[in-house]
């Protein structure tokens, strides 16, 4: 059975994965880019943009686990676009013509629409489905490879609650956002189901990995 | 000017410093002792109990900063005793005849009572005062030494909000409590006032230190 994996999912010290006030020019609300600066500094990120440079240390090693072995992604409607995108029939996601997924991507949306084939191997499919149903579809599309769960926080919470996540990499950034959407709400005793490791790196972030005990 | 310091203040991954359901036999509610096991394993803790043994590594090094240079402590009513203690005129705190403070201790209580002199140098004083007023009293009693802010979470939050904390050591334990009292609520942008370091240790906890930039 292929794994369900979460990667590079960044939160503040107070647990917010998204700030308040999300908008087209502020996909993370008042958090801005502060949750992801650690990643922008890595070689992984530089090379994903087609360039060179970036740090090659522990932050890079964690970040680079994002791609290998992934055959499909599942994401929430809030990651696909800003509030209101479902009213625009021509909206094609927040990433331009060649999105950085290069696999089928299943977008959980209450109002499904026809699939959209993008450049570079990404095809967006739209599903109004439970986590288990969406995972079944994504696993079929992944051809034996793993399924990445791309967020946002409420989607990850829903999959965790149903015990569907095998590997989760959370990056805790030393800022306090105070408001937004929390990752951790309603996940009491999650540690019973996971082996948890914590590693702080010189950039100041702490990488938390959750490995399912049932794996 | 002497410093105000917080030490060994333990929280869950989801930010709770106290679980739900505090009671005389469960001072941390459903959290039990799980937030403090990292500390019980240290030489600091063993020696505080008059014994020997315990780990001498990073967890001990952090934990042992608790005592030196402290001339007084301020704590909230919820740390002094379980809900209802203010109805018992003979209540003398949760630590027995020789409490582990050995300094004046100022207990923030809405219903002040006469001071209580205990064995070993601890004297409990009871104040209905603002953070700044309580700190003024504690500084006078500390004789030029630092003041420890002992918690609980809402007291620490109140002092942080007023910019009165110079050094804070928070220990993040890899469990999810789901409910209780959070440390971080309402502290947006706290990082603007502090240099923050994170260090994970082999026991699995992550030590976060906050050093006031104004210090």
CATH superfamily of chain A: Dihydrofolate Reductase, subunit A
| Amount of helix of chain A | 10-25%
Give the overall pLDDT of chain A as a whole number.
96
> Oligomer, anyone?
homodimer
**CATH T-level topology of chain A:** Dihydrofolate Reductase, subunit A
Structural class of chain A: alpha/beta
Global geometry of chain A: globular
Question: Care to describe what's here?
Answer:
The structure is a homodimer of 215-residue chains. With 215 residues, chain A is of the alpha/beta class. Chain A has a single domain (4-86, 96-212), classed as Dihydrofolate Reductase, subunit A. In chain A, 19% of the residues lie in helices and 27% in strands. The first copy, chain A, is built from 6 helices and 11 strands. Chain A has helices spanning 37-40, 43-48, 58-63, 77-80, 131-142, 153-161; strands at 4-12, 16-18, 70-76, 104-108, 116-117, 123-127, 146-149, 167-173, 181-182, 194-200, 206-212. In chain A, the strands form 2 sheets. Chain A has a 9-stranded mixed β-sheet with strand order 5-6-4-3-7-1-8-11-10. In chain A, β3 (70-76), α4 and β4 form a beta-alpha-beta unit. Chain A is globular and about 45 Å long. The model of chain A has no long low-confidence stretch (mean pLDDT 96). At the A-B interface, β10 of A face β10 of B.
SSE blueprint and pairings:
The structure is a homodimer of 215-residue chains.
Chain A: E1 4-12, E2 16-18, H1 37-40, H2 43-48, H3 58-63, E3 70-76, H4 77-80, E4 104-108, E5 116-117, E6 123-127, H5 131-142, E7 146-149, H6 153-161, E8 167-173, E9 181-182, E10 194-200, E11 206-212
Protein name (chains A, B): Dihydrofolate reductase family protein
Organism (chains A, B): Nonomuraea marmarensis
Domain Bacterial bifunctional deaminase-reductase C-terminal (chains A, B): 8-191
């Amino acid at each position: 059975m292929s794994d369900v994996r979460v990667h590079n999912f960044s939160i503040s010290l107070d647990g917010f994965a998204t700030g308040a006030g999300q908008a087209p020019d502020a996909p993370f609300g008042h958090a801005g880019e502060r949750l992801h600066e650690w990643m922008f500094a890595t070689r992984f990120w530089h090379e994903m943009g087609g360039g060179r440079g970036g740090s090659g240390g522990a932050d890079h090693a964690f970040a680079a686990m994002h791609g290998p072995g992934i055959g499909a992604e599942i994401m929430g409607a809030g990651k696909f676009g800003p509030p209101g995108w479902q009213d625009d029939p021509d909206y094609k996601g927040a990433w331009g013509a060649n999105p950085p997924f290069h696999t089928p991507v299943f977008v959980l949306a209450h109002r499904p629409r026809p699939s959209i084939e993008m450049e570079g191997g990404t095809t967006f499919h739209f599903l109004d489905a439970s986590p288990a149903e969406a995972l079944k579809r994504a696993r079929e599309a992944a051809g034996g490879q793993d399924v990445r769960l791309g967020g946002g926080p409420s989607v990850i919470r829903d999959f965790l609650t149903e015990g569907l996540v095998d590997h989760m990499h959370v990056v805790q950034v030393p800022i306090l956002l105070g408001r937004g959407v929390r990752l951790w709400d309603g996940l009491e005793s999650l540690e019973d189901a996971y082996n948890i490791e914590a590693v702080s790196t010189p950039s100041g972030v702490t990488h938390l990995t959750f490995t399912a005990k049932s794996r």
